[in-house]
Design brief:
The protein is mainly α and 73 residues long. It contains 3 helices and no strands.
């Protein structure tokens, strides 16, 4: 999950963990892209409006460079 707002990350991480989902949180799109070099998540939950690379740009980058991911918007 990626969101630049730490309080949103905290709430969503807690909700996902309480629902028995493993969750790794990131504060930027760049951090997600770095992590994708070494892992293949089942789902990526992303904020749309973030400073720097926004959620739509992140989606497009993943679509081009990580073809193993299935993307929904």
């Amino acid at each position: 999950m990626v969101d630049d707002d730490s309080s949103i990350r905290w709430v969503l991480e807690r909700a996902l963990n309480n629902a028995n989902f493993a969750c790794t949180c990131f504060d930027s799109a760049n951090a997600v892209l770095t992590a994708l070099e070494n892992s293949r998540p089942d789902v990526l939950l992303s904020d749309i409006r973030m400073p720097g690379t926004n959620g739509i740009e992140l989606l497009n980058t993943i679509k081009q460079s990580h073809r193993f991911c299935r993307l929904l918007l």
